[in-house]
UniProtKB/TrEMBL annotation, chain B:
Boundaries of every 4Fe-4S ferredoxin-type domain copy: 333-362, 411-441
Family membership: Belongs to the dihydropyrimidine dehydrogenase family.
Subunit and interaction comment: Heterotetramer of 2 PreA and 2 PreT subunits.
Domain of life: Bacteria
Pfam families: DHO_dh
Name assigned to this protein: dihydrouracil dehydrogenase (NAD(+))
Organism for this UniProt entry: Granulicella cerasi
PROSITE patterns for this protein: 4FE4S_FER_1, 4FE4S_FER_2
Described purpose of this protein according to its UniProt entry: Involved in pyrimidine base degradation. Catalyzes physiologically the reduction of uracil to 5,6-dihydrouracil (DHU) by using NADH as a specific cosubstrate. It also catalyzes the reverse reaction and the reduction of thymine to 5,6-dihydrothymine (DHT).
């Protein structure tokens, strides 16, 4: 891939967005990183490593920062997690590695693992060095990966390292999936996501953009390729199902975030309501504030204790100035041609957790409504009754250790299998599936020997396995 | 009220804190500022034959973010004219009559040269003389400094020459760059020295620039061995002070030097017999102001311990240093991990397995003791268990809801007390204060030493290890 075609160079640049969404957690400078690295105790069998879905050897990479061995540090991270850069910014570290840090039990601040990881990864990216891995000797095998998000990228990297061709099919014009389009810009910039994918392209991962895979194309891919990986994520955000929802000014959180990140959206009207209370809803509400809305409400049918957003995300939203309306449910979108208000029914929480309507309704005057009430699954193209792979409540059923679906030739990972989790979970899924596919292609047997995989220490690179 | 006032080799001291002969005592202006900051005395940077210095001339060793744990210099004695130094010395004594000024001298090894320099120095009104027999670099190549200090005969000869004319106390500064520091100390004592100071700097190369391959400090692509000092050398200095002060043929009033930067350091040197202390690196690192805490801290400690004067505790720890053969082998301690304090880092576990005696295990949870499972096996088993990870909403049941973060039992190591040799390593690596304590579990009520056992004929002298034929086991 020539320099001029690098994905990062194609990133839309908006000075206004960059100014409105500066780093939430600014990077370490070299001195601070070394001081912080020295604070790490270098635990044996560290809890942070256990808590990381990709099982990065955290004490090892931190030790290497402490000694100035930044190349070694980056390689330690990438060995376990090929998307170490985006995870270092997007991970909810408070509930993963940093949440598990033994320092908590010592009444001390946990080691800032996320920022240290970012420090090591940025040192690698700034050096211009390629990924410290080479493609394996060509096996003549090829795998089609549907969807260009973290699960497919991670899977593709494992395949390339084993000499297997990896071709990613994505409906969008740029790779990275939610990493590129769906994560709040102050956590992970669109450009940083693409920079990371550029390194994977150097490893020989191929991309087919603007390609929507339908049942017909899927059949073709199945025939052409030795295996298929489904990293298709989730589908569209749910609708409210109330009148007025089609009015101008009603959008959904994923489009909202993608639009501002790509610079297509640079301002917000005076009053915005975000419906839902998950992490994506928080990202959208914070974005509305930063885009200039004077009043941003989050509207949620239950109470703060039931919201699915992480506690630190909730705190952050409050700091940004987002207001919260609890125990209300939208009943109608009001407006003439465009949104003017959102009619909300008031509920009362009852002791058994159910919601009891109080009979009262009121109208929240708003200029824009952003829906963030969960995503539908996106598996129609996998076939109806004669399904290619078994689904359960819309999710693709996989063997957690290998990513293999009920159809031996199909593997899957990421949100389409778990219903929507963190980037790092998708990376872990992709990694397991990549190793699983390689084993499947090598063994020539339909079913992979699970016992091998159940006993796989995932933090140790797969070289150990073969 | 305890006092820091003391008398050292007949010299009345406001307090035991002197600046050592070094860059902080280069000129009168500096020394007067130091006295204003609280230093009781200063040993003027060594006066002698004209020299020219190189640059750079300092380098240091940093450790885990702590700057200047060890410090190194290839600087020579004062590069200012002798006349100027002596004139300023007189001026300082005139303005600060109660503070002590010691002239540090180093001249050519000729009787007349020493006689002349001693007289000129004492004419300034200084309180004493320190003979620099220690400088390990530059001067030694010219037959001075440690070239003198390493040869007991030279040491004695020059001390005698000085004593022939000196009217003030003569302090001989000893070099550590010698196999047995007691030998030159005995020579100095025999030659009539009034006091000793120890130690001077230790020969060292602090490090090498891995980009340019030049050792530090860099002088146009090359370097030279330099004198090591700073916190890192304190244990070596303490040992040498103890050796000198325990030897009746060597012991004299001794000014302790070597890595002193806090009141605790000073107390330790005095406990091993030093009459006062000299400080350099700490003052170079943080400035003269550090003396305030050194004096304040030492006084507070003295009050707490009931000591009125420096002499009340000077040398108090000397009887507690003995030959190994006189230690009680029946005294025994075993490690005890306080579970309520353990944070589960397991540093004690891996340290005991790799660095000590394999007496700590991770088998509190499970079917029973697994004392032969190596760290590698434990680690591999742990990885197998976490091959797929759920995402716990840890923030929902974090601190507050479920009490403070508790360490799961599976992460708290277990000490096999029966096999614990009481080496202490685990308690040294544990990051939490008082989490691992060493509990007394004597092997037998009666003390017994190796020397006693040999005397009783239990073992041939020097043949067997200490535990092999212990009659009490």
């Amino acid at each position: 891939m020539s320099e001029s075609k690098s994905f990062a160079a194609q990133a839309p640049v908006s000075a206004e967005i960059a100014a409105r969404f500066p780093d939430l957690h600014p990077p370490f400078d070299a001195t601070a990183a070394v001081v912080e690295a020295h604070r790490c105790l270098y635990c044996f069998d560290a809890p942070c490593m256990q808590a990381c879905p990709t099982h990065i050897d955290v004490p090892k990479f931190i030790k290497k920062i402490a000694t100035g061995n930044l190349e070694g540090s980056a390689k330690t991270i990438l060995d376990a997690n090929i998307l170490g850069a985006s995870c270092s910014r997007a991970c909810p570290v408070d509930v993963l590695c940093e949440g598990a840090c033994v320092m908590h039990r010592y009444n001390k601040e946990p080691i800032e693992i996320g920022r240290l990881q970012r420090f090591a990864m940025e040192a690698l990216h700034e050096s211009g060095a390629p990924l410290p891995f080479t493609p394996g000797a060509d096996t003549g095998k090829a795998v089609a990966l549907i969807g260009g998000g973290p699960a497919s990228l991670s899977c593709a990297a494992e395949l390339r390292r084993r000499g297997i061709r990896a071709v990613i099919y994505d409906a969008r014009s740029l790779p990275g999936g939610l990493n590129t389009y769906g994560i709040a810009e102050y956590k992970l910039t669109l450009r940083a996501s693409l920079q990371e994918v550029d390194l994977l392209a150097q490893l020989g991962v191929e991309f087919q953009f603007n390609t929507v895979v339908d049942a017909e194309l899927l059949a073709k891919l199945e025939a052409e390729y030795d295996a298929v990986f489904l990293g298709i994520g989730l589908g569209a955000i749910h609708k409210l199902g109330v009148t007025g929802e089609a009015l101008a000014g009603v959008t959904d959180a994923l489009n909202y975030i993608a639009d501002y990140k790509s610079g297509a959206l640079t301002s917000a009207p005076e009053r915005v309501a975000v419906v839902g209370a998950g992490n994506t809803a928080i990202d959208a509400a914070n974005a509305a504030v930063r885009l200039g809305a004077r009043e941003v409400h989050m509207v949620y049918r239950r109470g703060p204790a039931q919201m699915s957003a992480f506690a630190f995300e909730y705190e952050h939203a409050k700091q940004e100035g987002v207001k919260f309306l609890w125990h209300v449910q939208p009943t109608k979108v009001i407006g003439d041609g465009k949104v003017e208000g959102l009619e909300l029914a008031q509920y009362a929480p009852s002791s058994d957790g159910s919601l009891v309507p109080t009979g009262e309704t009121f109208v929240l005057p708003v200029d824009e409504i952003v829906l963030a009430i969960g995503q539908a699954t996106h598996s129609d193209f996998l076939g109806g009754d004669a399904a290619k792979v078994k689904l359960e409540r819309g999710r693709i059923v996989i063997d957690r250790a290998t990513g293999q679906t009920t159809n031996p030739k199909y593997f899957a990972g990421g949100d389409c299998t778990n219903g929507g989790r963190e980037v790092v979970d998708a990376v872990a899924d992709g990694k397991r599936a990549g190793v699983g596919i390689a084993a499947y292609l090598q063994s020539g047997e339909a079913r992979i020997n699970h016992s091998t995989f159940a006993a796989t220490p995932w933090a140790i690179t797969a070289e150990v396995l073969y | 009220m305890p006092t820091l006032e003391t008398t050292f080799a007949g010299i009345k001291c406001l307090n035991p804190f002197w600046l050592a002969s070094a860059p902080p005592t280069n000129c009168g202006e500096q020394i007067m500022r130091a006295f204003d900051a609280g230093w009781g005395g200063a040993v003027w940077k060594t006066i002698g034959a004209p020299v020219t210095n190189v640059s750079s001339r300092y380098s240091s060793m940093d450790l885990n973010g702590q700057k200047m744990v060890g410090f190194n210099n290839i600087e020579l004695i004062s590069d200012r004219p002798t006349e100027l130094n002596l004139r300023e010395m007189a001026e300082v004594k005139r303005r600060y009559p109660k503070h002590q000024v010691i002239a540090s001298l180093m001249v050519e090894s000729k009787r007349e040269a020493w006689h002349e320099m001693v007289k000129r120095a004492e004419d300034t009104g200084c309180d004493g003389l320190e003979l620099n027999f220690g400088c390990p670099h530059g001067m030694s190549e010219r037959g001075m400094g440690s070239a003198v200090g390493q040869v007991p005969e030279y040491c004695a000869q020059i001390t005698e020459w000085v004593k022939e004319v000196a009217r003030t106390p003569v302090i001989v500064k000893l070099t550590p760059n010698i196999s047995d520091i007691r030998v030159p100390a005995r020579a100095a004592k025999a030659a009539g020295a009034d006091a000793l100071s120890a130690i001077n700097t230790i020969n060292s190369i602090t490090g090498i620039d891995l980009d340019t391959l030049e050792p530090r400090p860099k002088v146009d692509g090359k370097s030279s061995h330099g004198g090591y000092c700073g916190p890192a050398v304190k244990p070596i200095a303490l040992n040498m002070v103890q050796q000198v002060m325990s030897d009746p043929n060597a012991a004299l009033p001794l000014s302790g030097i070597g890595g002193i930067g806090t009141w605790q350091d000073a107390a330790e040197f005095i406990l091993l017999g030093a009459g006062n202390v000299q400080v350099c690196t700490a003052a170079m690192h943080y400035g003269y102001r550090i003396v305030e805490d050194m004096a304040d801290g030492l006084l507070n400690w003295m009050s707490k311990k009931g000591y009125e004067t420096i002499d009340d505790f000077r040398g108090a720890s000397l009887p507690r240093v003995d030959d190994w053969k006189n230690l009680n082998m029946n005294y025994h301690v075993v490690a005890h991990i306080h579970e309520d304090k353990c944070i589960g880092c397991q540093l004690c576990y891996t340290a005991c397995w790799d660095g000590a005696h394999q007496c700590i295990h991770l088998d509190r949870v499970g079917d029973g003791p697994r004392t032969y499972e190596t760290p590698d096996q434990v680690f591999a088993e742990s990885l197998r268990k976490v091959s797929t990870t759920p995402i716990p909403k840890l923030d929902l049941d974090g601190p507050g809801l479920d009490g403070p973060y508790r360490t799961p039992l599976s992460r708290i190591p277990r000490v096999d007390e029966h096999h614990c040799v009481g080496c202490n390593l685990c308690s040294l690596v544990c990051p939490v204060p008082d989490c691992i304590t060493m509990e007394r579990q004597d092997k037998a009520p009666e003390p017994i030493t190796w020397a006693e056992r040999v005397a009783a004929g239990y073992v041939p002298d020097g043949v067997h290890g200490p535990n092999d034929f212990n009659p009490n086991l």
